[in-house]
Amino acid sequence: MKSPFIPRIVGLAVALRLCLGAGLALAQQPSLAELAQKEQERKKALKAAPAKVYSDKDLPKSSAEPPVASGVPSTPAAEQKPAEEKKDEKKDEKDEKYWRTRMAQAREAQRRAEAFAEALQSRINALSTDVVNRDDPYQRAKIADDRLKAIAELDRVKGEIEQSKKDIAGIEEEARQAGVPPGWVR
């Protein structure tokens, strides 16, 4: 006859073995205080050796003008703006308000087109029902003609919706390339 205590003793032994193994594994790892001290030493070493910062003054100056890629003669230097000023002007134009407004307008255009498409679909459905329910051939032909015009208009509006989606994707891509924060175009 088996003793009911043997499985319990075996289970207790296995649990004890697992606890001892985990304790040994934890004892071998460095403490949090040791890790913090090593990190402080690493940061001190980084601060001790300052990095060399390069500027335009460090670059060699060339006496020749850069070659012009196009056949159009260049304008006098007094009329040209430096590239940095042009960048700054462009950046000033396209601030957060610009991007939010542009995206809102594109989304509003898409929303209006989708609402119009839904209205046209309802009209097409009503005209389809009317065509079936009319007995007079003249009225039936007139309603069928109106239905075809509504279907053509619906196709045009669906094209507008697709174009709006492409415009929104284009704005998002343009903003991404310009380094605009994603929150500005949401």
Word description of this protein:
The protein is mainly alpha-helical and 186 residues long. It has a domain of 90 residues. It is built from five helices and no strands. α4 packs antiparallel against α5. The longest helix has 41 residues. The model has no long low-confidence stretch (mean pLDDT 80).
Topology:
Layout (H helix, E strand, L loop, with lengths): L5 H23 L3 H17 L34 H11 L2 H38 L3 H41 L9
Helix pairs in contact: 4-5
A few lines on this structure:
By secondary structure, the protein is an all-alpha fold. It has a domain at 96-185.
**CA radius of gyration:** 37 Å
Average residue pLDDT: 80
Q: Give the helix tally.
A: 5
Low-confidence stretches: none
Q: Could you give the order of the helices and strands?
A: HHHHH
- The helix fraction, in percent, is 55-70%
Q: Could you say which overall geometry the principal axes of the C-alpha atoms support? A: flat
Structure summary, number of beta strands: 0
What is the makeup of the main sheet? none
Which features characterize this protein?
single chain; 70% helix
